[in-house]
Design goal:
Helix content is about 35%, strand content about 35%. By secondary structure, it is of the alpha+beta class. The chain has a single domain, classed as Gcn5-related N-acetyltransferase (GNAT) (Aminopeptidase, 3-Layer(aba) Sandwich), CATH 3.40.630.30. The protein has an eight-stranded mixed beta sheet.
Length: about 170
Amino acid sequence: MATGLISIRSAKAEHADALASAHAEAWRLAYQGIIPHLHLERMIARRGAKWWGQAIARRSPVLVLEYDGEAVGYTTFGRARRQGSPYQGEIFEIYVSPVYQGLGFGGRLFRAARSALLDAGLTGLVVWALEDNEMACAFYRHVGGRPVAEDAETYGNVALQKIAFAWN
């Protein structure tokens, strides 16, 4: 999918550095003040360029959004992780570098991941977001998601609520 200077395609090995950078920048913006600092920094450190290179080599579903030839966002997705869920597909992550947020790139990544899941025969879609991540929750509501479940995720001794948004 290409529109002028914007393209979305499967990630390649040469995207690993840019994906690590987009991930770190977006996670700090999204989770600073929500996830305890030490846990957040450890999570970011684990997802460096080497991790991304290995994920791409394993053929994990990763789509990259390029703007003017630079990878500035990504989405990861696949079969839903929860057994017995009525939603077969799951988007695990959608992140865009902060300087490119608010330009519609997240929506493009969402639609591309949803299309790829449908092409793979996975009907129904679920996405989990931390309740305190107001930007993510607003985004998923904006693209038509409806809250269908809640759970908690623990970071050290801090339990944070998360919400499942779903599409049929």
